[in-house]
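Entry:
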Amino acid sequence: MPDDTRRWMDELTAEMEERRKRIARGGGGARLEKQHEAGKLSARERLEVLLDDGSFLELGAFVEPLREGLEAPGEGVVTGSGTIDGRQVYVFSQDFTVLGGSLGKMHAQKICRVMDLAVDVGAPIIGLNDSAGARIQEGVDSLSGYGEVFYRNAIYSGVVPQLSAILGPCAGGAVYSPALTDFVLMAQNAAYMFITGPDVVRSVTRQEVSLEELGGADVHSRRSGVAHLVADDDRAVLKRLRELLAYLPQSARERPPERPTRDPVTRETPELTELVHPDQRRAYPMLEVVRAVVDERRLLEVHAGFARNIITAFAHLAGRAVGVVANDPSVLAGTLDIDASDKASRFIRTCDAFNLPIVTFVDVTGFMPGVAQEHAGIIRHGAKMLYAYAEATVPKLTLIVRKSYGGAYLAMNSRDMGADVVLAWPTAAVAVMGAEGAANVLYRRRIQAAADPEATRAQLVEEYRARFDNPYMAAGRGYVDDVIDPKETRPALIRHLQRLEGKRVERPFKKHGNMPL
């Protein structure tokens, strides 16, 4: 190569490298230092923690803002692909040091580009959100950018897993993209989400509220149900993202990855007999029942702080990833209320979308009674569970641990709602209602006319309990496939799950169903 050509190429290469360095610095040293003082990592540092070492391949590094003269290295977002435990993912990481991570038209198009590639390839989409919201300088163009992202969140839903980490502010219209994804994770004391901020709330309602009180991680993990998982800081959230992804497939066309285990398929669980008392009035921690059954007692509970009367978690059985739905009788007696119905329905549909079998542990008295629940729409919300279970085509196993009464019996994946296999312990009871309530309804006049109403009532309750408060009436009608010893729970569930490996379901043609939202 001639000397002048080499010199020319060296100059161009030097200019390119200088541009890359400027982009990599983001908003510069002072802003990066401020980010660190707030306990937050930079956009690129987050990708280093999230992805396998050396696997990140950047896309769109030289993209510039739509508005000329606006200084925004990398357009305020780092995009590309990498691997997590060797599996490919597509990612975007908003850079709060560049114009507060605000979203402009080209910022949005960088995000849309990796979303499109993720779907074309069949790989999860992970968004690391840290943004002040729409870029005011670009006006309606920034709103158009959000629209492009939201549209893809919606049409790609159920195609590939979409995961959102909130690692800083996420306000206004920006909140709807994470809300449209499959899972939302938040960092404690650093992340917040809301439609309108404290200043607007103050001016409209005269109510004083802090960022944390309005839309912090505790609010969204315990009260609103927006956040599925919460961790202490950026690093902890990114670690949870990696853990969560281990239960999910690359796309709806694949099965979730299997996890090698040394936990024997034939392992018995005699401790369950001590854990669950036959007396229906005595509470116990259902989460411990689930732990005893799954591989190595390991599971990942999602929405743990929200609607705690029902449990939703990922686990493995004989190395196969499964979704677990379970009533928790230690919280509100395990009854189903509005929040529990929403929580379970969303989880069931997520499992079905990504080919995870659903294992349901039942101990439920019914739906939550009360004027407040009725007026707030318990009928509509409870119907979501019926719809979700009926719609799901993955293998569905149900274990009735203790009581299963009324409409909640159906809502917790009964045979009639599409369960492939229904098992029960000897402690199980399947009926329209509990013995005491049933006796009061069926024998009210007889009790009132008795010489000793209380003694007569007690006798009739025991008679009803002996006849109906057991699993054998339901088993006799074919609604329960087998009554098993609690110690055989793990091997029984695994055997049935293995037999259902080849399950295929064809449904009548339709554009889509009309879930009661």
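Residues 3-24 form the longest helix (22 residues).
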